[in-house]
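Table S5 (text form). Sequence records supplied for joint modeling of the two-component complex.
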Amino acid sequence: MATKPSKTTKAYISKVAHDNDVRITKEAKTLYAQLPDRAAVDDMISHASQLVKSMKRKVITGQLAQVEMRHYSKGEAH
Amino acid sequence: MPLSWLPKPDAPKTGGAKKRSASGFLLKRGKAAGTKAGPVFIAVPSTATTPPVALATPAPAPRRAPARKRAATTKLTEREQSIIDYARKKGSSVSSKAAQLYGQSSSWEAITNKIDKDIAITKAVITRKNAAIPFKLTQLTTKPKAKKTK
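The corresponding structure-token record, covering 228 residues in total, follows.
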């Protein structure tokens, strides 16, 4: 059974998103919390924020996080 | 100063009312062709100052702006066209510029993988049916081929 992401992990994700000038939904946060380490979180959120900005939007949604995580698990993150 | 050159108000008018035909033409004294003598009235068009309504010149039509010249269109290669067709088949679309970028990929499989991925991202971010893949997204996800340097 998957472990519940800690509060600090979620807080860290929020901080990274804020640093990238995007907002992040609760669902997306939960999904990114599954990543193995902080480096992966940094990488994934920075990529997601680039995608979001390229479409003139400001929020990383759960749907986008799902798509991104699917690619990550397949080993083709970017 | 004597105003002798002015006609006297009670002086008899010369001529009197001019004869006109029933249709309003001024009738002048003259000779009809082929007649020997005698006064004959010939119909002469009236020299009325106001033109008939039907002959009034219509207002000029507003000028149309000259047609815009189209930018020179570049012909798509067969590969680019098939990329566009593929995206359309998937319920999305790509611009010719994006197709050019996708077309730089090595194999057809690589191209389709990239398009599928971009469509998935587009659908996740733009919650609209059949949204087109933004060119900026293609630029982000597709590395352009390095240009040859001399």
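Note: The first strand of chain A starts at residue 23 and ends at 24.
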